[in-house]
Each structure stands twice: as structure tokens, then as C-alpha cells.
From TrEMBL:
This is 2'-5' RNA ligase family protein. The keyword Ligase applies. InterPro entries: Cyclic_Pdiesterase (IPR009097). It comes from the Archaea. The lineage of its organism: Archaea, Methanobacteriati, Methanobacteriota, Stenosarchaea group, Halobacteria. Keywords: Ligase. It comes from Natrinema soli. One of its GO terms (molecular function) is ligase activity.
Amino acid sequence: MYSVNVPVPGRVRRLANRLHPDLIGFETVREDHSCLLKRLGEADHVAQLQHRAHRALEGSPAVEAEITAIDYFEDPPLGSAPVVYLAVESPGLEAIHADLTDAFETVEGLEGRDYVPHVTLARGGDLETAKRLADREIEPIRWTVSALEFWDGTYKLPVSRISLPA
């Protein structure tokens, strides 16, 4: 599965690392952190998929994003529950997501109107622990998203970067 992801700054990764001890009881704890912007699907010709993504993003400006809270999905449409995440507020990222959904099929229940920008921390744990984590206050983290990554989900690696001009 290929996707377009938002790389997060070191401050977000440091916050996730500080929360790590409280996530140990979850089935899966993420070690790498980014914000999934749009799933693109599988491809026989990766270069063509990249080209379509680049074309869809042409002219997209750099946007502001902010981590505002810890939250959770109690009943996610895919995978084990709950999913604990860092909430990302960004009308600019939501607009870019909408542009990408015009160019690529939308995954029902996850994208389009159902899209919630976030950075997953852990999944498949105790709901009460997720609720306690969501009750915590965190210092907001704001940054400018000036590039996106074309992500290869099979190898869990960025394949290329897409610059967003200021």
C-alpha cells in the first residue's frame, strides 16, 4: 500500500517517546511517527502512482499543523481497538486531503468526510488506559508542513518527498 504522509517534527516524536511507557500494555506501539494524509493503493508501476500524486499536489502551499491533544478511536473501522493518537488540527492538511481524494479513490469510513488527521501512538489495548491518556493535558506543538512523503507501506520507507512551496 502506498500513501502520502506528513512527516512530523522532532518535538512530536519526543512527545510520543515520553508517552511510550504508558503505552506498553497495548498490542502495537508505533516506533515511527507520521500523519497519514491519503492512502493511494497498490501499484504495478510505482512511478505512475507517484506522478499522479505529484500532479494532484501541484501548487499546494505549505500549511500549518498543530498537535492539540491525545485522543483515541474507540471503534476504528480497521484493525484492533482502541487506537490512541495525537490529534492534529490543520485545515490546510484537510484541504490537501480533499484534493487527493479528487485524484484517487476514497477509502470508505477512513477518508473524505471521515478523515481525521492524527499521529497514531498505539492500538489494541485497554479502553480505560486510552481514556486516561486522552484526559492528559499536553503542550500544543505547532509546525509548518513544507513537504510530504510518498510512502511505501510494504517496506515502511519514504520513497520520495514532495515539496510544498511557502
